[in-house]
Amino acid sequence: MKKLINDPQHVLDEAIAGVAAAHSDILTVSHDPNYIVRNSAPVSGKVALVSGGGSGHEPLHGGFVGFGMLDAAVPGPVFTSPTPDPILAATKAVDGGAGVLHIVKNYTGDVLNFETAAELAEADGITVRSVVINDDVAVKDSLYTAGRRGVAGTVLVEKIAGAAAQRGDDLEAVAAVAEKVNAQMRSMGVALSPCIVPHAGEPSFELADDEIEIGIGIHGEPGRERIKLEPADRIVDRILGHIVEDIPYVSGDKVLLFVNGMGGTPLVELYIAFRRAAEALAGQGIEVTRTLVGNYVTSLEMQGFSITLLKLDDELTELWDAPVHTSALRWGR
Amino acid sequence: MGLTSEWARAWVALSAKVIAENRVELTALDRPIGDGDHGENMNRGFTAVVPKLDSLAEGSAADILKLVAMTLISTVGGAAGPLYGTGYLKAAGAVAGQDELDGASLVAILAAARDGIVLRGKALVGEKTMIDAWTPAVDAAAEAHAAGKSELEILQAAASAAEAGAVATEPLIARKGRASYLGERAIGHRDPGAQSTALLLRAAADAAAA
What we know:
The structure holds 2 protein chains of 2 kinds. In chain A, 32% of the residues lie in helices and 24% in strands. By secondary structure, chain A is an alpha/beta fold. In chain A, a hairpin with a 4-residue loop joins strand 1 and strand 2 (35-38). In chain A, helix 2 crosses helix 3, helix 4 runs antiparallel to helix 5 (171-184) and helix 6 packs across helix 7. By secondary structure, chain B is mainly α. Chain B has helices at residues 5-21, 23-33, 38-53, 61-75, 80-94, 103-121, 131-146, 151-167, 192-209. In chain B, helix 1 (5-21) packs antiparallel against helix 3 (38-53) and helix 1 crosses helix 9 (192-209). Chain B is globular. The model of chain B has no long low-confidence stretch (mean pLDDT 94). The chains are: A alpha/beta, B mainly alpha.
């Protein structure tokens, strides 16, 4: 496997140094402890949003630091949660006196490290609320597992809660909006090929040339089933069916349709998937009123994609449309 | 006569040694049912602890355990960092102010560590986690103490029970952590956290024998 890296041990440091160099108009990078903050932080009187997790999912989370979205992102080593101390340092760096919201994907390591950091921040007099994202419908029997995973929908929570904080909502209100988005969205992903963690040097799982994994997580954790490769439309119908029936989404609903690439699938294929998903939803009377297509929550070089649906109302639509200025999402400003 | 802070110091040094020796094995256990970094992460943590021990020449057992806790929390990452960190922190609290550790103190250390890990990770026995090593170890230590055994024998009983507990995770389906997403595919694999717990508790016994 070829990778565009130098020393595997320096992947994170060199990557965030690159982020700092490329986007100095938007953000500042702290090394040791590693975190990324928007240049204007702390914004006095504004609720601050902090997210983070293992690296390898770029542009999540650092690409979403900036006006109208995150105040800080805390990147851990590739696919490994950051420890509590950089999370604590980032939390302190962005607290503008109105409290801090931690947005945490439901993975055991992320949850435990953010929980510990939140306790330490509270001990330092900073009010922290946490929302745990768990949009992945692929995990069945969530009573008997660590629960549904937090996957691509995390971007939608960061955008919409970020807009709520930017317009001046207080901590309780921003947390409530984040919880609402989490409750109204569902995602499911598919892998066509595995990915290789740089310091491991070998694939995180095996997949034969003619096989795909349905219900993959964003680190290549297995999902519901492994099947033979099918045409794009069949694959889309499969996972969209699981998503639609989960909440369920019904005729008359307005939704945001998000087709996310895992890193190794070209946009031309993502648009093929988008086309089919939009068609299928229209056929069920579900109106797609907002859209997002691209590589936003990736899994290194994995080939694959995920679909996320978010049920929209006027408030969520307005917050989605609100101005945002980050390196990976930017409109209205 | 009970154990002293010298035992705690020797335990930490021996822990660092066995984790380093078993780094590759722990990571190999973690690859099929986790994310393949447990040995690396634990080794990074204990490697960071050892040089800090020297700066704590006058410290009590509780001080040493607290140092381990804070270092693991800030260096290990993943789930193991906060879990072990909380465990060592609670263990330190259980023997705060004690210059000499008797059998009751050792049982208190193990029970407090286990309770702290349960508090953080919310795992129950039988869910294929490190708790499947910790809880049998606590029970065996308490039993040995009640039977009037020595400090060394208490720690040896705990270590043996933890080792048996780690082996006993092999046929289990995981209910917590990343392995839980595998369902039946986790059967046949030993939990890496239970294995590292067994190594650390054997180191505790060996430190008392030295």
